[in-house]
């Protein structure tokens, strides 16, 4: 099948105005890196999303889910097949302590929405830039809290397009992992259980965490956030700092001088610059400390 045939077929199952050909992915990633997607689609409804996933599976078309692009590096050659983006699936609802959020909603928005309703439990997420889908896949966490603390259930699409409801136990949530990541599921929505709290205390905690984040992280530059998982018995940032790697990099990419766990796009870096800087950090830390730094970010696409 040709690219045009895919587009023609997709136009029959979703709003054609939300189908883009040869779309640059730099706009959709926090690193501002990466090549083009053959086809880029943004479903308006969960039904459209399901139809797209089913179509890709039935016709053996490669399909990549792109959330808020906060934890992903897209290679310069771009992505073949279809990239699906859930930005239009961003509904948030609160009912008696239960917070419902679609997969495309931003986690930090859900956190702030809950805080405005005097609900406590998601303050830790006030600065996490990912979508609900990405947060669920990675069991996102910060400042002592993580998704597994508050999740009730998640509705996903399997790679075949089957709609499945997963309870907390079925999600297999661990440190930066879940069954969603392992199986390649697509998150339609999640429900969280929060508790009624004191508004003043909630606001104070969010203000404190926001200050910590803004003062310690290089938010003035594009980046993929924390690049590496925390190695057992160590902190990735401390190992990188002690390896004297801050300020070093390849091309326009650089290990942040503000937070060694971040690699920033400082000066019009390419994805190749960014990835080679990651590899340099892994190599030097291995040589100096015999510790293997495992990626927290996902690298996709073609060179």
UniProtKB/TrEMBL annotation:
Subcellular location: Cytoplasm
MF terms (GO), sorted A to Z: FAD binding; UDP-N-acetylmuramate dehydrogenase activity
Top-rank EC class of the record's enzyme: oxidoreductase
EC numbers, comma separated: 1.3.1.98
Chief site of localization: cytoplasm
Superkingdom classification of source: Bacteria
PROSITE patterns given in the database record: FAD_PCMH
Keyword Cell cycle: yes
Domain FAD-binding PCMH-type: 33-197
Sequence similarity: Belongs to the MurB family.
Protein's job: Cell wall formation.
Protein name: UDP-N-acetylenolpyruvoylglucosamine reductase
Organism: Metasolibacillus meyeri
UniProt gene name: murB
